[in-house]
Write a structure and sequence with these properties.
The structure is a homodimer of 339-residue chains. The first copy, chain A, has 13 helices and 7 strands. Chain A is an alpha/beta fold.
């Protein structure tokens, strides 16, 4: 009964939610039907991507961020928070499980927080598609804040960052002399840069290096402050082309220092997006990206069904003997499928 | 004249090589024909993958490794060395160019070393396919050692590591308390673990942590030494299933310390692979992986040609309005293409 199941998710039933997530992660037919029924109810949550190298204290930061959202300083009703922790560096074994255990100690007992970990189990496309599916279930189920946490700063993370409205890149002091080389890509995905462990030696240097880099990318950089406030800038000189200058924020996640500023900065970013057409643009990009990923997966699986595995194996064997090039083999395999 | 061009590459003409690399990187028809002509001449080189987080000194290590191969201690004829530097963290701007300049200072003037940098310019699949193409050109052109250097430890790096016979994972001291969480995936791709900057504080801890982890993965771990020598182990208790226990080597790339041990370890690894059927197995995996990547790209491009862009745009617009789910849209788009 996928439709009943979807309705139970919409009603906020926790067991239904857990079961839906499992169906979607396992890419079952029922999971697809649930997603189909939930899709019209999505589009309300603030999706926050958090990425950064191992060792930056990213998971602790995400925990603190979730707790901060659950205890708003102004006494308003707190939003419900979902955390989707994605580990693309762990393609074979259950790296994500360890993460789960550590998290549970901090966050257990608050029914307004829901945590789901995923390890990569196949292609990158599959991981991004599954992540998008989980996020949409949480969105439909009424979680107002959804934090998507990924390890590293490679293409996988860029792809998963594309799912988010606001992307936080976490750094830590002491990553040393190659700092310039990592930033070309990061500057273009980061809405907020966090230097965590900012009580450690070298934090000032890391903060300064990041701010200098931002000044170069945004010649009007004298307006940068630490609080992610909306900047009045000339969009023609803004290389990111969207008028938002990333904030650079120091935090100490283990003690919670800097977390309120981070929440303010995230709220400022979402206000900024919604005050312009950027929110809509990001939504469009997100959905286009999801469509593309699903299309690639579907084309591959359709091809697979239309050709005998023997033909594939025979072509592969010839390639391995270097009697046939991979390029020619692909031509023959596509013709052979008679699609 | 792609065939003449391919012949010039086989003859070792440097200009022809450079032009071929550009054609292949740009995925031109001529590039494909050159690859086709060169493919039967591939399969001789030792392909070495080097990956690691930014800040580990990976590029300096690769430079030193190339120089070490060019100055063999035993006075034999040195192999020619190609370096393919891939930067998947830089999806939009030319991060790779900076890397080039730094490298040139060290390695310029040795005609036996050829360096090519690539930044990610589209999909991950495209990057891996282009990298595989460049590697095959160098292989056919007679470079005996081909070093594929990537940044980070995400899925992109795992994919690119699959291109290599021997994968080096570079660590540095001080990445701190999350060391366990990064290792699940790394243990399964690393043939050799290098702790670079091993003159820095914390190096002993990092070395010890990595060795402990390896001991747990290989219960017969008392046989581990620093030199990558072939181990007599019980393959039934070897979790990686291939009988090779990764060496853990300290290096100081800036001074060259530890580099000769690294070369010995690489030579031991290639001897190990060739003494069993593992070399052949890795070749098969590499080529299968390449075939899969090319197939995905070809299916997508074939679909694109068979459907009007208007139909795609109309479906996308409905998805964005949440009138149509991405899953249903993909079904309709595939049917609409009439493939």
């Amino acid at each position: 009964m996928p439709v009943n199941h979807a309705q139970a998710v919409l009603n906020g039933e926790r067991l239904a939610l857990t079961r839906a997530l499992t169906q979607i992660e396992n890419n079952t037919a029922e999971g697809l039907e649930i997603l189909e029924a939930l899709f019209p109810h999505t589009g309300k949550a603030h999706l926050i991507g958090v990425t950064g190298a191992p060792g930056t204290g990213k998971s602790t930061l995400v925990n603190q961020l979730a707790l901060a959202y659950r205890q708003p300083a102004d006494g308003t009703i707190p939003p419900r928070v979902a955390i989707v922790a994605v580990d693309p560096t762990s393609p074979f074994t259950g790296g994500a499980i360890l993460g789960d255990r550590v998290r549970m100690q901090d966050l257990t007992g608050d029914p307004g927080i829901f945590i789901r970990s995923m390890a990569s189990r196949g292609s990158l496309g599959g991981l991004a598609a599954a992540t998008a599916g989980l996020v949409q279930v949480f969105d439909a189920a009424g979680f107002e804040i959804i934090i998507i946490e990924t390890v590293g700063a490679g293409q996988a993370e860029v792809d998963i960052a594309r799912l988010a409205h606001s992307t936080i890149v976490v750094e830590a002091p002491g990553l040393g002399d190659e700092i310039q080389t990592i930033k070309a890509g990061i500057l273009e995905i980061a809405d907020i840069l966090v230097v965590n462990k900012s009580d450690k030696p070298g934090a000032e240097n890391t903060l300064r290096a990041l701010r200098n880099m931002l000044s170069m990318a945004h010649p009007e950089g004298k307006h940068i402050n630490h609080h992610g406030q909306l900047m009045e800038i000339d969009s023609e000189t803004d290389q990111t082309g969207n008028g938002w200058i990333p904030a650079v924020l120091p935090t100490v996640a283990t003690s919670g220092e800097g977390i309120p500023d981070l929440v303010s900065s995230l709220n400022a970013h979402i206000d900024f997006l919604k005050s312009s057409d950027l929110w809509q643009l990001r939504e469009e990009k997100r959905l286009k990206n999801q469509l593309e990923t699903l299309l690639g997966t579907a084309l591959r699986s359709r091809w697979e069904k239309s050709i005998s595995p023997d033909i594939y194996q025979a072509a592969l064997a010839k390639v391995i003997k270097r009697e046939l090039s991979p390029w020619r083999a692909v031509e023959e395999l596509i013709q052979g499928a008679g699609l």
